[in-house]
């Protein structure tokens, strides 16, 4: 299976997926990185790993439908089977959703449906929850609302700082996202997970 990864920032999850593919624990090909921030560190990580990159600036396009149809063309040319969001800080629109139904996957740093949206780790920390975690889910038109594929819990101890919780969440993400993607590839996606 051939995946495109969409990312906007640091790309630590992008790097974890690259590493898993290189080790052979994720049997898939990363065909393309799509990035809406040309100066983001994830772009450099992709270049180092010899992964083709398509960057764009959303503001330079008249609408989401316009830039998503350009992305679609890139995905088709790269023969992409599924899309992996890894810190892509933008809602996926109907153009991409219709082109890749049930083939777009997101990682979110909370136990959904708790704490959707931005700053989920901070929100959970400030709410004082004792257990948080990560969620991997199919993407629909909502913000972090699609069907849940897998979740993993992270315990917040009384003496944890926000920084501690962020570190623990990212550690779990880097292990669990590539593992779950491998399971999805083996199980042909929604057939077994719905
Ligand atoms: C991750 O915490 C992920 O859950 C969220 O965005 C963050 C991306 O981090 N959707 P990185 O760019 O992979 O380091």
From TrEMBL:
Binding site for (6R)-10-formyltetrahydrofolate: 64, 89-92, 106
Catalytic residues of the enzyme: 108
Domain Formyl transferase N-terminal: from-to ranges: 1-181
UniProt KW Transferase keyword: yes
Catalytic activity, as annotated: N(1)-(5-phospho-beta-D-ribosyl)glycinamide + (6R)-10-formyltetrahydrofolate = N(2)-formyl-N(1)-(5-phospho-beta-D-ribosyl)glycinamide + (6S)-5,6,7,8-tetrahydrofolate + H(+)
Binding-site list for N(1)-(5-phospho-beta-D-ribosyl)glycinamide: 11-13
Pfam family, one: Formyl_trans_N
Site (Raises pKa of active site His): 144
Family annotation (PROSITE patterns): GART
Protein name from the UniProt record: Phosphoribosylglycinamide formyltransferase
């Amino acid at each position: 299976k051939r995946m495109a990864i969409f990312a906007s920032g640091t790309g630590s999850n992008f790097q974890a997926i690259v590493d898993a593919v290189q080790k052979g624990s994720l049997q898939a090909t990363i065909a393309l990185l799509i990035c809406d921030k040309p100066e983001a560190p994830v772009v450099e990580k992709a270049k180092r790993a010899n992964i083709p990159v398509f960057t764009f600036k959303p503001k330079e396009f008249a609408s989401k439908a316009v830039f998503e149809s350009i992305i679609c063309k890139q995905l088709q040319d790269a023969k992409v089977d599924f899309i992996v969001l890894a810190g892509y800080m933008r809602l996926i629109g109907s153009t991409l959703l219709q082109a890749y139904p049930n083939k777009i996957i997101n990682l979110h740093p909370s136990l959904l449906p708790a704490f959707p949206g931005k700053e989920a780790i901070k929100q959970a920390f400030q709410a004082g929850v004792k257990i948080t975690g990560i969620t991997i889910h199919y993407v629909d038109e909502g913000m972090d609302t699609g069907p849940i594929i897998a979740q993993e819990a992270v315990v917040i101890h009384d003496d944890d700082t926000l920084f501690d919780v962020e570190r623990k969440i990212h550690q779990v993400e880097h292990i669990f996202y590539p593992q779950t993607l491998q399971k999805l590839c083996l199980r042909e996606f929604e057939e077994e997970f719905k």
